[in-house]
Design brief:
Elements lengths: L3 H41 L2 H4 L1 H4 L1 H6 L1 E5 L11 H9 L4 E8 L5 E3 L6 H4 L10 H4 L20 H8 L4 E6 L9 H11 L6 E5 L2 H10 L4 E6 L14 E5 L5 H8 L4 E5 L4 H10 L3 E4 L2 H6 L1
Parallel strand pairs: 1-2, 1-9, 2-4, 4-5, 5-6, 6-7, 7-8, 8-9
Antiparallel strand pairs: 2-3
């Protein structure tokens, strides 16, 4: 015969077991409901969003677009109209070339002479800025650009400040003054644009000079040849590589150093896809609007 105390204890145990079972049932129901809700939510997300990371589409949201010498499909290269077109069309960066006149003025021009742009054989370093400013370098574009002149770096900095970032390629030659790099860095700093500019060059010594003058100013080493030891280029914050050099292994190695890879020149779907698969960070293109739209 069970005592009253034992009966009470057994009843309590039964109740406890029942409560535990009830709690477990409720938990399972809640988990099932939550899982069902998650499935429903996922089912409403477009497939292209779910597949973004697998297909690499997410890369398109992060990669930056650099207008090569401005938007040179809309206006003559390395001119103010081309730079304005790049800004208006939404490019992230403008790539431009800086060199020096006979009297030391920093100007934006790619070639050593005027032949390709004007048909004249004159060298940039043999002309004063006053002489250079009289020449229309865009006559082959027609009458609309008849007043287009070679801009100074200062003009470009003034226009681009707070509008767009600048990849300033240093064109090195034997005719530049010894203070060429110092004047370039000084002008960028005077304009308060050190955080908006990157100095790039095929000449690594120029980047070393930049870092000695302004360690925080971003730099990029340009190369059309394979770089066997990117670790050795300590004065280069980034690497600007020919599209032929872009591959997953190279990009991954550079990324492991905490540096970015800028690809040039990216003008077609094949090159874009190559950069996507490799994970390049920035595309220099002659067709910024087309590349952004595709």
């Amino acid at each position: 015969m069970m005592r009253k105390v034992d009966i009470v204890r057994n009843v309590s145990i039964v109740r406890s077991v029942s409560i535990v079972r009830s709690v477990n049932i409720i938990r399972k129901r809640h988990m099932a409901a939550a899982l069902l809700g998650a499935v429903l939510i996922v089912s409403m997300i477009p497939v292209r969003v779910l597949a973004k990371d697998r297909t690499g589409e997410g890369w398109r949201d992060k990669v930056e677009i650099t207008a090569h010498r401005g938007d040179n499909t809309q206006a003559p290269e390395n001119t103010m109209p081309a730079f304005k077109a790049a800004v208006e069309n939404g490019a992230d960066w403008i790539e431009l070339d800086v060199t020096q006149t006979k009297d030391g003025v920093l100007v934006i021009f790619h070639d050593a002479d005027l032949m390709r742009m004007t048909g004249k054989p004159d060298k940039i370093w043999d002309m004063s800025y006053e002489e250079l400013s009289q020449i229309n370098t865009a006559s082959h574009w027609g009458p609309f650009f008849k007043d287009t002149r070679i801009p100074t770096l200062e003009e470009v900095l003034d226009y681009c400040k707070d509008k767009i970032k600048l990849n300033i390629e240093v064109k090195v030659n034997d005719h530049q003054t010894q203070d060429f790099i110092a004047r370039l860095v000084g002008l960028i700093q005077d304009k308060g644009m050190a955080g908006q500019c990157m100095i790039t060059s095929f000449d690594y010594h120029s980047l070393q000079a930049v870092k000695q003058l302004a360690p925080a100013l971003e730099t990029g080493f340009i190369s059309s040849k394979a770089i066997e030891q990117p670790e050795a280029f300590t004065s280069a914050d980034n690497f600007v590589l020919s599209i032929d050099l872009i591959n997953p292994e190279t990009v991954s190695r550079i990324h492991s150093l905490g540096k970015e890879v800028i690809a040039w020149t990216v003008n077609d779907a094949y090159s874009v896809d190559k950069c996507r698969k490799a994970g390049a960070d920035n595309l220099i293109t002659d067709k910024p609007r087309k590349i952004m739209e595709d």
